[in-house]
Design goal:
The protein has strands at residues 3-7, 10-13, 18-25, 33-39, 46-51, 58-60, 68-73, 78-83, 92-99, 112-113, 117-122. The protein has 123 residues and is mainly beta. A hairpin with a 6-residue loop joins strand 5 (46-51) and strand 6.
Length: 123
Amino acid sequence: QVQLVESGGGLVQAGGSLRLSCAASGRTLSSYGMGWFRQAPGKEREFVAAISWSGASTYYRDSVKGRFTISRDNAKNTVYLQMNSLKPEDTAVYYCAAGGGSYYYTAFNYDYWGQGTQVTVSS
């Protein structure tokens, strides 16, 4: 089993930056693809970014390309989401997830989820 805990969320002004972290316990993440999803009030959970088990491949939704960067440190069993140039529409609860498949864009690909961390961007 895998337990995931997100941290690093908070309140930031538009144009600012945050770095989210997702720490895993129970099992190493070295063999898992990792994804970040977000969910705003009244909205469905949506894909944000993903990274393959080796870190060789990354994927982003169009609206965050050039602003967000996903990375991982398997030695620390941690995945990160660097969020720059934040916009009010980025406001959501952000979740990290781990899965063994290759369909990184869909939540169905992931077996384990963190509890989420709130990101609020003010205008």
